[in-house]
Specification:
The protein is α/β, with parallel strands linked by helices and 362 residues long. Helix content is 44%, strand content 17%. Helix 3 crosses helix 4 and helix 7 crosses helix 12. The longest helix is centred in the C-terminal third of the chain and has 18 residues. It is globular and about 65 Å long.
């Protein structure tokens, strides 16, 4: 089976990493072609995995008719059997490609991203998705929570939905004991509305004000439009000794292995890949109680959840995790949960089963 994998991002992020992991673990009878922007580091990584001649270039997070027509020509010329898109923008291309060429499409949502939309924009987006749903053979939800949201939105037939939870590579051995104090708190985040990085500053303020006895350092890896504003908030609050914004990294696991706790401040998630990666490294998680996070964080077991609008509760959770025995036990449970339910091999096998289902139907 020859499959065109389509994404409008190849920069650092969970979506591009998800596709990279999927490509590495596909069954041998699948011949992958990738269409993505010429972003790094994943453009090069995809080229290495599938061969430079099997990587097509599309615009970064932009829809262009010219790119759609070029992809349609490539689908026909290369005898593509199936198109699998990842993310909202790529999903527009893939379903229109199916309409143009008759090749079936599979779309993975990676989150229902309407949290920052006003009423009119949200209604228009859902209308577009309802139309595109007619040309979708199967749609993949990456968590049960995401599937419930999509079913409630009623823009695609429920019988077309399949749940395939995200998977991550799992180290064979648990990493060595975490470094000594201060409490090292790590987060990997795009600086945008969904990831809500400003909340980190509120949490740091609450930690310093309510728990002055705790010595801590929060590092937020990543980049985006709001990074400059977050740095301004840190400077205004005189938090420079407590919160660092070191920028993006293509090797977040090195940072996980030098940390004690993972912090997620997202307003919503599909299935948080960075959270799963941190858990696979034995880190307990303190996270917002939202879809995606609550699918993987079992409150009081492998981590702690806090309401989105309560930075004080998040601060108290981080203080609780400063206690070594609780943190160690939660980290062990986090790693065990990923080993049992969220391996990349399981994810790839279940995704391939969706492809086989469509092939049998055809």
């Amino acid at each position: 089976m020859r499959i065109l994998f389509l994404t409008l991002r190849a920069d650092i992020g969970g979506g591009p990493e998800h596709l990279c992991q999927l490509l590495q673990h596909l069954p041998s009878d699948i011949e992958p072609i990738v269409a993505c922007p010429r972003d790094e580091p994943y453009f090069s990584r995809y080229s290495t995995l599938v061969g430079a001649g099997n990587v097509l270039t599309v615009p970064h997070r932009t829809f262009r008719l010219g790119a759609l027509f070029q992809l349609a020509r490539a689908v026909r010329a290369r005898n593509v059997d199936l198109v699998h898109s990842h993310g909202k923008g790529a999903g527009i291309y893939s379903r229109l490609l199916s309409l143009q060429t008759g090749v079936p499409s599979v779309h993975t949502f990676h989150g229902l991203h309407v949290g920052e939309y006003g009423a009119v924009k949200k209604a228009l987006y859902l209308l577009v998705e309802r139309i595109l749903g007619w040309f979708t053979a199967r749609a993949i939800c990456v968590s049960d929570g995401e599937r419930q949201l999509i079913e409630a939105a009623r823009f695609i037939a429920p019988e077309k939905l399949r749940t395939v939870v995200n998977g991550v590579a799992i180290p064979q051995q648990r990493p060595p004991i975490a470094p000594p104090p201060p409490l090292r708190i790590i987060s990997v985040s795009r600086y945008d509305h969904q990831k809500y990085p400003e909340l980190v500053v509120d949490i740091a303020n609450a930690l310093r004000r309510l728990h002055p006895q705790l010595s801590f350092l929060i590092s937020v890896l990543g980049d985006g439009d709001k990074r400059h504003r977050c740095q301004e908030l840190i400077d205004e609050a005189s938090l420079g000794d407590f919160v660092h914004l070191p920028g993006p990294t293509s090797h977040p696991r090195d940072a996980f292995r030098n940390a004690h706790v993972y912090l997620s401040t997202s307003r919503w998630e599909g299935m948080p890949l960075a959270v799963l990666e941190a858990m696979s490294e034995g880190l307990p998680v303190v996270a917002t109680d939202v879809v995606g996070n609550r699918d993987v964080v079992r409150d009081g077991k492998n981590g702690l959840l806090f309401p989105l609008d309560e930075p004080e509760t998040a601060a108290a959770s981080l203080v609780a995790m400063s206690e070594t025995s609780l943190r160690t036990a939660a980290g062990q449970k986090a790693r065990e949960m990923v080993q049992e339910h969220y391996s990349v091999a399981q994810m790839a096998a279940k995704t391939a089963a969706v492809y086989d289902e469509i092939a049998r139907r055809g």
